[in-house]
Amino acid sequence: MRRADATRLVALAALWGASFLFMRIAAPVLGPFIVADARILLAAAALGLYFRWMRFDTGWRRWWRVYTLVGVINTGLPFLLYAYAALHIPAGLSAVANATAPMWGTLLAATVLRERLSNARLAGLALGILGVALVTRPQPGAAYPLLAVAAALGGAFCYAVAGIYLKRRAHEAPGRGMAFGTQLAAGILLVPFAAASQPLAPVTPLALSATIAMALLSGAVAYVLYFRLIADIGPIRALTVTYLIPVFGVLFGAVFLGEALGPSTLAGGLLVVLGTALVLRK
Asked: pTM score, two decimals?
């Protein structure tokens, strides 16, 4: 891997890891629906302007049904679930839960696509389950709501379901068009729910800034970096970003929000990363 590719990979992991920090700041103020819809629509608008400037055809007329379905499963629902989780659990915990997406994908591939599970992948699943159990175990003086933890894990499960669908039904859809079309469709579908919602606390400049940063940096810029990596180093190597996201998520939560880094958090996060590495092996 060239130095420029490695730099893009680390930058992408930092941007996606920062999204959990931004959600933890914005969601308790604006509420899950407003945060999820705002980040999606702003990212879609930025990508739309960028692709228009690049004169790239997103293929909306041909692929709008796929964009809509994948947008619900891969964007709208998981972003909403993570925004809800951010009301109750640390950013680092959400980032670790997000890293279980390849493990859910492996389980679905085995049950839906009838793919064989190697010993390495089985070991990865076991490590991932143990890691999540360690990270989510009640800490002294703090217990995480089970519904919030389930929401974060549910968001990762949504990514896995979308991956299986894309592999079977929509592998010919253009990647960059998918990045824009799914966000546009999901954002439009969430508008009625966001419009009917109210902020949970007085709106602050920090909450608004976090939402905008999440949309533009963790959304639009991150997608451009991701598809550049896929073009340069291939989709398999690009997936290694999954190992780094929880590292940045936990780090940002500790540095900017003062989230505790107990032994169980560090050990559990490490097990999830190792498990992810094993299930992504070919």
From this structure: 0.92
